[in-house]
Amino acid sequence: MKASEFDKRFDDGAKDVVDDLDLSQARRPNEPSRRVNVDFPPWMVDSLDQEAKRLGVTRQSVIKVWIAERLERKAS
pLDDT tens digits, residue range 14-37? Predict the structure, then answer.
């Protein structure tokens, strides 16, 4: 999708344009990443995969966004 098409959808009042974004490479500027290993039970991985598929992003993106949201709520 071209930027002009994305802008038009947003300007026309699309309720959720997140589905049109590829958040797999999203990161905060000037912040290095650190690798962390976490073990999840199979049911949790399945749920994460379903949500990632629904949003059209990677499992890792869903985990990052959900954790970031929780940390931001906790900070406020």
Answer: 767 777 777 777 777 788 888 999
| Burial status of residue 15 (CB atoms within 10 A of its CB: 0-12, 13-18, 19 or more) | exposed
5 vs 11: CA distance, rounded Å: 10
Question: pTM score > 0.70 for this model?
Answer: no
Every domain of the chain and the residues it spans: 38-76
Contacts of 59 (CB under 8 A, 6+ apart): 45, 48, 49, 52
> Would the CA dihedral through 66, 13, 76, 32 be positive or negative?
positive
